[in-house]
Amino acid sequence: xxxxxxxxxxxxxxxxxxxxxxxxxxxxxxxxxxxxxxxxxxxxxxxxxxxxxxxxxxxxxxxxxxxxxxxxxxxxxxxxxxxxxxxxxxxxxxxxxxxxxxxxxxxxxxxxxxxxxxxxxxxxxxxxxxxxxxxxxxxxxxxxxxxxxxxxxxxxxxxxxxxxxxxxxxxxxxxxxxxxxxxxxxxxxxxxxxxxxxxxxxxxxxxxxx
Length: 210
Ligand SMILES: [Zn+2]
Hints:
Number of helices: 7
Structural class: alpha+beta
Largest sheet: 5 strands, antiparallel
Strand content: 25-35%
Helix content: 25-40%
Strand order of the largest sheet: 4-5-6-9-10
Low-confidence stretches: none
Order of helices and strands: EEEHHHHHHEEEEEEEH
Shape: globular
Number of strands: 10
Bound molecules: zinc ion
Mean pLDDT: 85
């Protein structure tokens, strides 16, 4: 974990319209978050305002500007940093809005990613189990491509409905739409999303585009 020191403060508007002050303090390798809402005062909990400050939300943060960078410095190298990867900065929102699918992500960011010396592999399978995957591979210093992707984003539209038959065999009885249909795997951030833009952003975060 990175050694750092400092504090940053945000004002977050709660669901009832109340304003809460969220503070982050970094002391060496430890980071602590405080909020003056009733839940935050009890201590030890990540109240929703702390969560909003980290993950970001255009509706609730009243001060979002240079403070965001200060926050990222304070949480660098901590578990909170991964949570911050769901946050889409205001200046990036317009561009990421064009990413309505993985192929659109590829079209919009493909050149930029490849200019960073990262190789991209895109695959799409049609049919009953549609799958769309974009994987990013970095190179070793000797120029060989790594076998393990740095990050992968995958869309799976359907999942199998499996049931156990009378003789104990598991059989596929149907298909149903998958709600959390975007999966991102990466060193910094992994997870499942319903929202394509959040998933795309998490994929880019893993590649250092944030
Ligand atoms: Zn709070």
